Amino acid sequence: MSQTMKSWFVAGKSGFDSLEFKDVAVPELGDKDVLVKFHASSLNYRDLIIPQGKYSFGVADNVVPASDGAGTVERVGKNVSRFKQGDKVVVLFNQGHLAGSLDANSIKTGLGGTVDGCLREYGAFDENGLVAMPKNVDFRQAATLTCAGLTAWNALYGLKPLLPGEYVLTQGTGGVSIFAVQFAKAAGAKVIATTSSEAKAQRLKELGADHVLNYREDANWGETAKKITGGGGVHHVLEVGGPNTMTQSLKAIARDGIITIIGFLGGVRGEKQPTFLECLNTGSIVRGVLVGSRLQFEEMNRAIEANNILPVVDEKVFKLAEAKEAYQYMWDQKHFGKLTIDI
């Protein structure tokens, strides 16, 4: 194999022009390292805001971007026991988060942030920072699991496991929300989804959503969602919008229900930011998640195989050299599901 490779780097905080593409040496292997030849990566909102200097967690200088990647094992270090040459693998978002909760060390091991990510031809990773790729998916589909898939799984199963017949409320048609629809339907739950257009509503229904609410037409969609449940409220809300959607999420939630805060697509400030007293008034739990552990990843992959869940990938696929164009395409919200990059 070649001793050099193509790789992207985040060289500043001035926007997508801060992304640099150049030739570098293929990483060297330690005794417990695995060299992965990447075949696909996928982008997340986090990747878009890192080169804009808007990411609130740590970012290393000149880091290789993108947390998500799937590929084949090219070589292994002499003390590697979990993988062999030719195995198909997917990377773990926080390389040090193997099980349980994040701690002060594992939270600093995020790919594409503090640790070099996947927008490159090869990457070297500790064998514990990889999982076996589900057998029923291709490389593009597998590359969507690292962040969005595992975040949705953690939201539904990380604290209070979703049960058949319960209600799940999702927001929009981003990667995490669509995974949540798929996981919830596979579990026998009922899904109420929100979106902004009839075309996206139809796609959500095709994926199994039982009810779809247009938040542009129904400003009180949280109250509407609660009425759909018969007044009891939804058991799980995946909150991706931020302060501007949280008020409606709190109106929709059931007593003892869980609102999992995933992100802040609508910004960090709202016209009316709810207070912690709303948790008392609604009897609900609000938690934030930062993806999930390797143990949860392996649990999720077993469910993906058992239920033949196929991640939703946008029809537009970019090549590695076209990463800047991919960033802009996603920033312009032209995608549905996960946006992937072939490597």
Automatic annotation (TrEMBL):
Gene3D superfamilies: Medium-chain alcohol dehydrogenases, catalytic domain, NAD(P)-binding Rossmann-like Domain. Coiled coil: none annotated. InterPro entries: ADH-like_C (IPR013149), ADH-like_N (IPR013154), ER (IPR020843), GroES-like_sf (IPR011032), NAD(P)-bd_dom_sf (IPR036291), Zinc_ADH-like (IPR052711). One of its GO terms (molecular function) is oxidoreductase activity. Residues 14-341 form the Enoyl reductase (ER) domain. This is NAD(P)-binding protein. It comes from Dissoconium aciculare CBS 342.82.
